[in-house]
Amino acid sequence: MSQSNALVVDTSASIRNYIREILHQELGFNEIHEVKDADNAFRILKSGHPIDWIFSSWEMPGLSTHDLLRIARNSPNSRHTHFVLMSANEDPVAREIAIREGAADYLCKPFVPRHLIHMVHRLTGLEERRGTERLKVTLPCEINIGFDSFHSYGAELADISISGCRMKTSQIKPGSGHIGDYATITLLPEKSAPFPVQAKIRRVEFNQSCTDPLRNTEVAVEFMDVTPPLRERLESFVDSCKEKSAAKWRNQMGAH
Predict the structure, then answer these.
(1) Helical packing angle, 65-74 and 38-46, nearest 10°
(2) Phi and psi dihedrals of 135, rounded to 5?
(3) Are residues 58 and 84 in contact, defined by beta-carbon separation less than 8 angstroms?
(4) Architecture of domain 135-255 in this structure
(5) Digit-coded pLDDT (tens) for 78-124
(6) In sequence order, which residues have a C-beta less than 8 Å from that of residue 157 and are 6 or more positions away?
């Protein structure tokens, strides 16, 4: 997210500074604008400056946040901007109303950095999963999946993107690997050191017709907490898989 631009709208300078530090230091945002009310936010949007994210307090004087959200959704430069509303109101009804009116999500104040970081990663992941197809791995690529120090399995990568992967492994023992569980996926690049990625299990399927006991279970995972440096390593790993696939295709064409 090193190229992301954000607009932070809040009457409190300390809250604006707090959010700016999280976005810049933890998430690698490139450019962050800060304003104290929706009127000034409207001027920035009207200027045509590209904004990828808006973090706006619900309670502000002047132009209402509701109007700011409507303007953002109707502006060509911010129609697809992630609009996150922030409020001290923890009422779930308020969150439902915000989402229904076009907000990407709703964040209750006060919040700790990991709440904001997780939200940004989750919303970014949703966007990536909608727009990115996973790369099918055409050559054997070994990885590891571990649930704790006692449950770790070798696996063969089936497909991968920067948002998740699918693998084939041996039958997972009872007590580990349920849907919703967290796991550590260790990717094993050929020309660099292995690196771990935290993930969440989204699907586990046992293939009764598979006669290979080391590949009879398919596990699909979603990558979690992908920081900018980790994203770069994932992109490099995916690119290396693409190069292997292209080389295999060239070899097959040459054989003919």
Answers:
(1) 10
(2) -85, 120
(3) no
(4) Beta Barrel (2.40)
(5) 767 888 989 887 767 667 767 776 788 888 888 999 999 988 888 87
(6) 137, 141, 142, 143, 165, 166, 167, 241
Q: Using omega within 30 degrees of 0 as the cis cutoff, is the peptide bond preceding 194 cis? A: no
Architecture of the 5-131 domain: 3-Layer(aba) Sandwich (3.40)
pLDDT, residue 98, reads: 72
Place of tokens 């809040």: 10
Task: Give the Cα separation of 39 and 20 in Å (integer).
Answer: 20
Closest CA to 143 of 111, 104, 190: 190
What span, in angstroms and rounded, lies between the C-alpha atoms of 155 and 80?
Answer: 38
Where do the structural domains in the chain lie, given as residue ranges?
A: 5-131, 135-255
> Distance between CA 29 and CA 23 in Å, rounded?
5
Question: According to the model, what pLDDT value does residue 131 have?
Answer: 40
Q: Distances from the Cα of 25 to the Cαs of 29, 110, 132, 195, 196, in angstroms?
A: 8, 19, 27, 22, 22
Closest by alpha carbon to 27, among 72, 109, 82, 73?
A: 82
